[in-house]
Every structure is written in C-alpha cells, then in structure tokens.
## 1
Amino acid sequence: MHTTVSHYLDRFIDKIETRDALTPTERAALTGLPQKLVQTAARARIVEEGERPTHCCTVVEGIVYRSKVAASGRRQIISFHVPGDMVDLHTVLFKVADHTIETVRNTTVVLIPHDAILRTAEDHPALARAFWYDTLLDASIQREALLNNGRRDTRARTAHLFCELAVRLKRVGLVNGASFELPLTQTDLADALGVTPIHTNRVMAKLRAEGLIAFGGRSITIFDWKALVAIGEFDTTYLHLEGPSDLHL
Amino acid sequence: MHTTVSHYLDRFIDKIETRDALTPTERAALTGLPQKLVQTAARARIVEEGERPTHCCTVVEGIVYRSKVAASGRRQIISFHVPGDMVDLHTVLFKVADHTIETVRNTTVVLIPHDAILRTAEDHPALARAFWYDTLLDASIQREALLNNGRRDTRARTAHLFCELAVRLKRVGLVNGASFELPLTQTDLADALGVTPIHTNRVMAKLRAEGLIAFGGRSITIFDWKALVAIGEFDTTYLHLEGPSDLHL
DNA sequence: CGCAAGATTGAAGTTTGTCAAGAAAAGTGG
DNA sequence: CCACTTTTCTTGACAAACTTCAATCTTGCG
C-alpha cells in the first residue's frame, strides 16, 4: 500500500479539475489517498456481484467493464471504463456490490480504501461534491444506454457506443487520429448492446462495408465521424462536458 | 414558497432515516428546506430535456417518470418514481437536464431550490452522504433496468417491473394486500420495457390468463407473488434495502 | 349520451436469435 | 520462429420474438 504521492490518479484528478478548480489542499488530499497498484491478467474479476468490496477501483491503463448476469446466464455489460475513471465509486456507500467488475486484457488499476474516500469527502466539501458529480455522470451515461438499447436498432446502438467511447478516450488522450485501441471482443460488444454476437458481427460488417469504420487488431478506426454520429443519434448532452453547475457556495 | 416546516418531505426523510439515523439538527435542516408545493394536471411536464432546472422535484402523491426520446420519436421511460422519491436530485450539479420529467395523472410534487440543497449538503456532511446515497440507489435501479431490458424477454421484464414497483410502493405504505394503484397506460409500460404497447398487451394478457396478476381500473393485483418473482428473476439486492455502509466517520 | 383515449385482437412483415460449421487470428509451448 | 491449440470472427439456413398496420371493443369522462 503506497502512502507516498503517486501519479496514478492524475487522469482522475484532471477530469475533476476540468469541472471545478481545486485548491492545492484539495488536490493534495486526492494525491495523498492510500493507493494499492494492481496489475491484472486479462479477464480478471476485480469485484464480483454479491461481494462486499472495501476499495474503489480506478483505471490506470486498459479497459474495464461492469456487468450483471440474468438467471439464464446471459450477461449484460452495464458500462465500459477508460483510464481515469473511478469505476465503482458508488460502492463506498453500499454494503454489497450489485454488479461484477472485470478487466478486458492486462490492465493496471489502483485500489483506494472506502474509508479514506469517505473521510476525504467529509473533510473537503468540494471533493464530496466532485465525487458525487462523478457518480452522477456515471448514472447519466447509464440512462443514455437505457435509451440506446431500448429505443434504437442495433445499427444505431453500435454507432452510438463507438461515438461515446471515442469521445471518452479522446478526453484522456487515447485517440490517435481516427483510431483508438478497443480490445473488446464482439461478444463483449454484443453483451453491452443487448444483442447476440452473431448479430453484432453482421451489423459491424455492414458499417465496415459502407466505409464508415474499420476494426480488427484490437482497435477501431472511424473514417466518417459525421455519418457515425448521425446513425447513432449521438448527442453529447448526456456527457455533461460543460462541467458542473456554476453554483459555488 | 413555504418557509415554515411542512410534512411534504416526510416520506423522503423517513426513507433517509431507514438508512442512517439523523440528528434533530439534521432532520430540522431537511424539514426547513424551502418548498414550493405544486399540484399538476395529468401528463404535466415538470422538467424538459435541455432545460436548465433550478429546483429538485420530490413526489408527494402520484406517479412521476423520467424519459428520454430517440431521434425517431420513440420514447424510453428511464424510471418511475413513487411518493417520497426525490426524482431529479442529480440536477443540483448538472447545468442541463438530460431527460424529461412527467406526471402520469393529477400529482402533487414539492420543488426545492438547488442552492438550498447544496448549502444543506455543505453544512451537514451526513446529509451530503444521504443525498449522495439516494442518487446512487437511483443509479443501481437504472443498472437493473439495463439488465432487465437487455437480457430478459418481455414476460420477465414485465414481471420484474411489477415486482419492483410493488416493493417500492410497499415501503411507503401504498400497497393494500396484493393490490396497488398504478395509473400507467400500457403504452407507458411499453416505453419503460423497450417494446411496443401491442406486445406489452399480449404479454400482460397471458400473465392475467395464467392467474398471476389482474389489472384494470388503474391498479394492479398480484395473485401469485412467488411465481411473479420467479418469472421476473426478481432479487432485491440491487435495491440495497439493508441500508448504507456501516462506516461512520 | 357521446366522444376520446386506451385496450384488445388479427394478420403479415421484420428484426433478431439459434444452431451449425468453417475461416481467421491470437495465444502457447517447444 | 514454428506447430499446435484455442479463441474469435464470419457466414448460412431456419426459427422465434417482436413490430407494424388495421380494425374493433371497452372504458373513462365531460
């Protein structure tokens, strides 16, 4: 367990600071949070549904997702998480995890104890607000996913998901030109979109045949951003990129 | 705008207190929140997607839902809200509403200014935590909806939704025996379940024919709770009924 | 009473799922 | 670096779930 200042949380802190400036004290409180660096294998379970987690998980490198499983065994991926995301900040107030957290490939994450986060929130109202904001944004992304999967066909869903991931990865500097690494299998994508992998494959093949995207080798290239945005009805309002309310107390 | 103590928030406060005891001071801070009582007509829009709300909405009587609309015009209902629910507590930190809030029938709600809520949260860390918890539970319910709509067939989805509403209404004393008022149209239900009203009608008709439920006259009766729970794979873990983490600072 | 909204039913079409098999790519051990 | 194994991707044919269009019936309400 590190207790010295590290930079593993830099992306997370940067994200918070684009929303609301922090004082040096507040920033120090974040960088000083106890951190346990963990390197995982591919398909590692960080938290399992029903467990009682004691730490929050922040992505340093790689992709992490949260999922729930129906009685039939069919899996629904709830959300994907990119570097800088605190994946399960909400577990600080829940006893039992209501979903599983898994890595896609070799991934680096940082674990932070719940009690340290709660103490930080109590000592620094601005940080309490920042944590709260982060979980609210997470919920907003879930609402859009509910609309996406409920009221758009698979073609639009797929386009929407790629647009969202492109924007979120771009914000942390992980998009090169029109390409970004996305080491997900088509089964992963299917489980996020609520369809079968076979169907996902056909829909993606059509997008590729139309020259809109390319994929393979664990990465995605978007050739026609405007077209993909139109197909996916992608509107960034729900990402609340403009930052939080101007209300300062 | 009331500034005297009222009991419109009693159900909300009760809900919070089942999770974590409040001090008299904290309770007073909640009951003393400025409140604007609003009686709405049926199908009234309280907040519209894209607006910049300045108040939070708490349900006093009736049913309220949040929805988003796809470009095709198809509507997705994100969640239903029962008396005692603070529907859009998350808007305190967002500038722009990412969804619409509507009432089903004549409904009573209470509006509370954002700045009052934020000030209360800043002055009372326990209340900041309680507000945070409330929005986290909301997000957990959304995750279950994502699983429900993505990985269960319409029969299971419908059963699950009725089970959830029964539990949530029971917690606020709005279930009589096996029946509860639910003044939703089948189109409302369809928009929540991500299917067409015609299909919803057929699925519900089958549940009725099997003697599991009755509906009509704006209310639902569940004759066979165990069977409905089994069909809907309903497990209350995601409702976090056990209260928040035991961690007290 | 009569209108309007919602519920119900039928028939036909579309999207998506299931089963099955082969091809390509990635990982593994020598 | 190659041969082998496993995973992932891709394609075809068929089945099931769900949608669409259309019409009728019922109910709530002024």
Note: The helical segments of chain A are 10-19, 24-31, 114-123, 125-151, 154-171, 186-193, 197-209, 225-232.
## 2
Amino acid sequence: MMLPTQAKQTLESALAEHGLRSTRQRECVFAVVAASMDHPTADAIYSRVRESLPGISLATVYNTLETLVSCGLVRQVNFEREPSRYCPLSEPGKHHAHFHCTRSGKVFDVHLPESFMKDLEALLPPMFRIDKVDLCISGQNRGENPSGHVEPD
Amino acid sequence: MMLPTQAKQTLESALAEHGLRSTRQRECVFAVVAASMDHPTADAIYSRVRESLPGISLATVYNTLETLVSCGLVRQVNFEREPSRYCPLSEPGKHHAHFHCTRSGKVFDVHLPESFMKDLEALLPPMFRIDKVDLCISGQNRGENPSGHVEPD
DNA sequence: ACTGATAATTGGAATTATTCCAATTTCAAG
DNA sequence: CTTGAAATTGGAATAATTCCAATTATCAGT
C-alpha cells in the first residue's frame, strides 16, 4: 500500500497542525483507510496494513486510527455495539450518513446536502452547539448493486 | 417502583403479541425505564430496579431490556462506544433523535417531524428499505436548562 | 554525524460492557 | 397436583478496546 504524494502532503500537514509526527505506521494506516471504501474495522485495517508493514502492532493501529480521527482525516462509524468501522473523510465540510444493510452487512455512504443539515440544526434548541452528527440508517438493500443487476444481496 | 394500570396493559399486550409472559422482573424493569427521562445505562437501571426487586440479576436486566426493545416498548441508544442507554418509546410512529452534551453527559430528546423523516428517506437510493434510523448529535449545551436559568452545565 | 529530549511503537496485561450457559425456579394449562 | 415450556440466576466467558511499562524512532541543536 503506497500513499500518493498528494495524500502524503495532506497527512503530514494535518499531523503537523496537531504537533504530531508522520511515521511509517501512520502513513500506512492512513493509506489503507484512504483506499478502503468498505468501512473496515480496526481488525481488518490491521490485517491490510500488515501486508506492507508486517511488524505493526494492533495497539498502534488503534492509536493511529484515534490520531487520524482527531486530526479530521478519518471518520469512526459505529452501528449499535458492533466493532467500530472507519472511513476516509476527504472534504471536511461535507457530511455523510451511513446506510447499514442488515442482510449483507455492507455499508453505504449517503450524501447529506447542506439544506438537510440546516433543517436538522433548526430542530435543535438554539443553544445546543453541534459538534458532530452521527446518522445511521439500517435496513435492507433490495435494489441494484453497483454492477448494475438486481439481486437480494 | 409501581407500574400504572395503563402501562401494565401496554406491557402485557406487547409481550403477549410476541408470545412472551409478563413477569415481576419485566414489569419492574419496564416501570423503571418508563419513569426514567435521563437515558440510563443497563447498570443504572439495574440499581434502580433493585430498590423494588433486590434479588434481580444483572443478566435479567439485560435480557429484559432486549425483550422490551424487541417488543418496541423501549429504545436502545448508543453514543460512540459508551455503554448502551435506554429510553421509553411511547408512540411507535414518532421518531426522535438524541442530543448528547459532551460537557455534562446529559442526553436530550429531539423530536423529528414527519417532514424531516420524509426528506431523509428521499436522500436514500429508492431500493433501500429503512428499518431504523439512529440520529445522534453531540455538542455542548450552552443554553437555559429546564429550571429556566442559564448556566454552563 | 552525535546526543538528549520527546514522541511513537510494541507486546502483553487489563478493562469492561455484554453475552453465554447450565442449573434452578416460575408459570400456565391440563 | 403435574408437567413442560419459559424465565431467571450466578458466574464464567467473550471480545473490542485501552492501558502500561519498556523499547525504539525521530527531531533539533550542536
């Protein structure tokens, strides 16, 4: 897993902003998450990262994921009490929700337009300052999959 | 903790619909949750229930909460990876979100109007059948509390 | 390059909410 | 009452995550 130069810049400046160093481990974990569209768990990330960094420890994967989340590069997603999943967070201003198919276990991103976020904000008492919004929808995907044909997952 | 006759009816019929019996333990756990506006954890519910049923086990509290959730009487609420919290679910058709104050730890219900739920549905690919929506907003409550005066939690 | 100070990583132990399980108790119906 | 199913119980087990002390890597200043 190699990190494109541009992504490397992104990582390094985000870390620097928080007074943190860029390391091989952080680069690699970031590269794996950035390349993963399937919302992997820490464990799955661990095994993917080990393909390029066999000696990395699970503790470091957890530490790094926490670091990346706090730098705003990665998002942690929780469904019920399942193990946390992680996804890349490219544009900081853009919000997305998650659809969790209870049949297949797959997770889909759902883009949330600015208008929707505004509506949501309007529903809250005005003195509640929003830091984070977690919206998870679960159900079953009975539709077309990306390959274009219909199947029940 | 005594359960009002009407609530008892609700519980008994909901349980009966699922082929389940009403028991002292279930009545009491239900009564505690129904009377709790603070979104208690299983542990908190356990200690409240023990005031009327000192011999109840934590396992039963967990079992019962699961039962009540599956009967649609109680809602399980998760913030990040914190212990699950529970709240009464009076009207089955009515949706609400949760605002989690990161300063005080308090949880507030946020009513979601039907129009908002419709908007949300419209954002999803049409073949996604929604079973459940979990919306958690976290941030800080800098506003008036129910007693009417302003304080920083 | 070298050195010291600081930060990051590591392996393994610890934590903790929750689930599991086998044994007992309760319940409702015949 | 008896009997079979359902519910409860205490304690053990699970599993994701966090903690910790020891090692290793990195950076800044010489």
Note: The beta strands of chain A are 74-77, 85-88, 95-101, 107-112, 128-141.
